[in-house]
Design goal:
- The chain is mainly alpha-helical and about 675 residues long.
- Helices cover about 70% and strands about 0% of the residues.
- The protein contains 28 helices and no strands.
- The chain is globular, with a radius of gyration of 28 Å.
- The two termini are about 30 Å apart.
Length: about 675
């Protein structure tokens, strides 16, 4: 009885997936973005109020809100793309919406068609995703809210508000040009130093494995960010910019360091602490933008003398080099120091070929358009979003729902494929809207309309960039009162806005869950298996590339590109895994079962790289039969992953020598194929 009583009185706790979704993400407060949001959203409203046209100011503030949402890039050139391009699509959207306002079923069809285009655009990339979002959002607003002035005035005001955010974001560009890119490269050097420390402890305990896995994931994320910033800037920079070539060369110089670290970890080799310290000294030099220092002078392109290295904290000769990893790291650091010391970056041989030259912008745009039109996934998401928006528009056309545009707005925010789980986003949207409505109710009931709107918007605007990194629910809670306050300036409903908006949000979440989630099995089945199968197949090709006979495939540049692509794919899978954990059972539980295999594949890539480093430093190369055997096992694993949703153990039998250079790699492949099925 006592046992039953304890079970009966046990307090109710929320499910794990909801706790994970509500847990705020650790992130620093972006104070510069906070200041820009406060100024950009309150200034237009103040100007409109002073001119006797607060509605015009509210429209411009709405445009500034979309600019604040897109103000996430560090590099100044990226800010132009992230803010300006979506504003153009937003202006198009509000124009189309205003043209069909009040036209009944024609408006329903037009908004549904825009939803289809918006959904397909969202599958292209980050900038296209935000552009598609604003295209649909503003079209819904224009079709559901009577806008003041001529047809062109609302698009102009909203675009002007977004461009105000861009202007504020670019104020420091003349003084800080290139600083974000240099800071990203320097951060990558520091993460590589942390990787050396985690890899070179000489221990093989479980906690050391975890520390190394985390350090390697951090290096991958840092490299992804740095390469994205530098290459995005370079893609728009015609000709050979010395600064960009140097940054690319400095990033490429990290590759040998990252390749050497797995060797130390795989074979338990202890690395001298001076190596990580030297890497941090190089990071400080990159961050300060020091060029041609370290005792270099004379002719352009001269190599720095060896007596320059003690100034960096790098010993001229490695004390007692006792293994291939230590020698590889030592050589890699010398190469990185040479790259930093070279006064003429254009003399860096093949600095750009490590990554391949990015295609011209028009070529990439044409390629993206072709891929979207021919992609089944693109059409499925576009139709999914169009179905939900069409249902919402039909519903509010048949039922008298005041200010019904909020239903479609809710669906648009929830059904973003690159923003996370649809299910958890619908729940968080409802909870965030409820929290935001509490704030909005307090403001609308106690603050008099007029000049008091300006300081209220100024304060509320600061919360949007401050809370957005914490999670989607927090972002929703911050945005909701701002939109409601600006909407009240346009339609003067006051406190009467609050309860209808909550009902509209719940209706939108329900439509998204049923028509956008439950009716599409692919949305509630984890996509980790297929993506991981692709990564395993690519790993098999990487093994062949590392030890094959084709000189073109085994070139250092080809291996570097393949390895970077592999780790980027695995990083994306990690992100997909985190999203899947926020799904309710059984999807979340099935996703958790894939995690050991994700780690196992990363270790296979590490073991391949470590074996390659050992061969480069004198170990006997594996025979073709050994390489083919490992590749075959990996391809069989990839084929098996495509056929199952629940993991099952698969034995792996190898015939190669245990003490060969591929011995650790075979062990990792065996471990990957022996992953057990999840508990039921």
């Amino acid at each position: 009885m006592g046992h039953m009583r304890n079970r009966t009185l046990r307090p109710l706790t929320p499910p794990d997936w909801l706790v994970r979704s509500l847990k705020p993400q650790p992130a620093p407060v972006p104070w510069a973005a906070v200041a820009r949001a406060a100024i950009a959203m309150s200034l237009p409203l103040a100007v409109g109020t002073a001119a006797g046209e607060p509605a015009y100011g509210a429209l411009a503030s709405m445009g500034a809100l979309s600019g604040v949402i897109g103000d996430t890039a560090d590099a100044y050139r990226m800010r132009i793309l992230n803010i300006a391009v979506p504003q153009l699509f937003g202006a198009l959207g509000v124009t189309l919406g205003a043209l069909v306002f009040g036209h009944g079923w024609a408006a329903v069809g037009a908004v549904t068609l825009v939803a289809l285009v918006s959904g397909m655009m969202s599958t292209i990339g980050a900038v296209a995703s935000v552009s598609g979002l604003l295209l649909l959002l503003n079209c819904v607003i224009g079709a559901g809210l009577p806008l003041p002035g001529e047809w062109w005035l609302a698009p102009a005001l909203m675009t002007g508000g977004g461009l105000l955010v861009l202007a504020l974001a670019l104020l420091a560009w003349p003084l800080r040009s290139g600083v974000p890119e240099r800071a990203a490269v320097a951060a990558t050097y520091r993460s590589a130093a942390a990787l050396l420390e985690a890899a070179g402890t000489g221990e093989r305990a479980a906690d050391q494995h975890a520390a190394y896995d985390k350090a390697r994931a951090d290096v991958t994320a840092s490299l992804n960010q740095a390469y994205d910033l530098v290459l995005a800037r370079r893609a728009r920079d015609h000709g050979r910019s010395p600064e960009l070539v140097r940054l690319i060369a400095e990033l490429n110089a990290i590759t040998p360091v990252v390749e050497a670290a797995p060797t130390a970890h795989q074979y338990g080799e202890k690395l001298p602490p001076e190596l990580a310290a030297a890497m941090r000294r190089l990071a400080d030099a990159v961050g300060r933008g020091e060029r041609g220092k370290f005792g270099v002078g004379g002719d352009r392109g001269a190599r720095p003398p060896h007596d320059a290295y003690p100034d960096l904290g790098l010993p001229d000769e490695l004390p007692h080099p006792h293994g291939p990893a230590a020698r590889a790291v030592h050589h890699a650091l010398r190469h990185a120091a040479d790259t930093l010391a070279d006064p003429d970056p254009l003399t860096v041989i093949h600095a750009e070929d490590r990554l391949g030259r990015p295609a011209a912008l028009r070529v990439r745009a044409r390629r993206a358009t072709r891929n979207v039109v021919l992609s089944g996934a693109s059409w499925r998401y576009g139709l999914r979003l169009a179905l939900c928006i069409g249902i919402a528009q039909c519903l509010v056309s048949l039922i008298d729902v005041p200010r019904s545009y909020w239903v479609a707005l809710t669906i648009t925010f929830v059904l973003k494929p690159d923003f996370g789980s649809v299910f958890s986003r619908a729940v968080l949207r409802a909870l965030g809207t409820a929290a935001g409505l509490v704030v909005a109710a307090a403001v609308l009931s106690s603050v008099e309309r007029g000049w008091w709107d300006v300081p209220v918007v100024l304060v509320l605007a600061t919360l949007i960039p401050a809370l957005t990194p914490r999670g989607y629910g927090y972002q929703t809670a911050a945005i909701t009162p701002v939109i409601l306050l600006l909407s009240d300036v346009l339609n003067h409903q006051g406190f009467g806005l609050v309860l209808p908006r909550l009902v509209d949000s719940l209706i939108g979440c329900a439509i998204a869950l049923v028509a956008g989630y439950l009716l599409w099995p692919e949305s509630w089945h984890t996509r980790i298996g297929d993506r991981l199968a692709d990564a395993v197949a690519d790993t098999a090709r990487y093994v062949e590339c590392a030890f094959g006979d084709d000189p073109d495939a085994t070139a250092p540049a080809a291996r570097a590109r393949m390895r970077r692509r592999l780790y980027r794919d695995l990083s994306d899978i990690r992100t997909e895994f985190q999203r899947a954990l926020t799904e309710p059972p059984p999807t979340g539980a099935r996703a958790a079962a894939w995690w050991p295999l994700v780690v196992a594949v990363e270790r296979i890539v590490d073991a391949t790289t470590a074996a390659r480093v050992r061969v480069r430093h004198g170990a006997p190369a594996p025979g073709p039969d050994e390489v083919a055997e490992v590749s075959r096992q990996l391809r069989e694993l990839a084929e098996g992953l495509r056929e199952v949703e629940v993991l099952v153990p698969v034995p792996a039998a190898f015939t190669g020598p245990e003490d060969g250079v591929l011995g650790p790699l075979r062990q990792e492949v065996t471990a990957a194929r022996a992953v057990a099925s999840p508990r039921r």
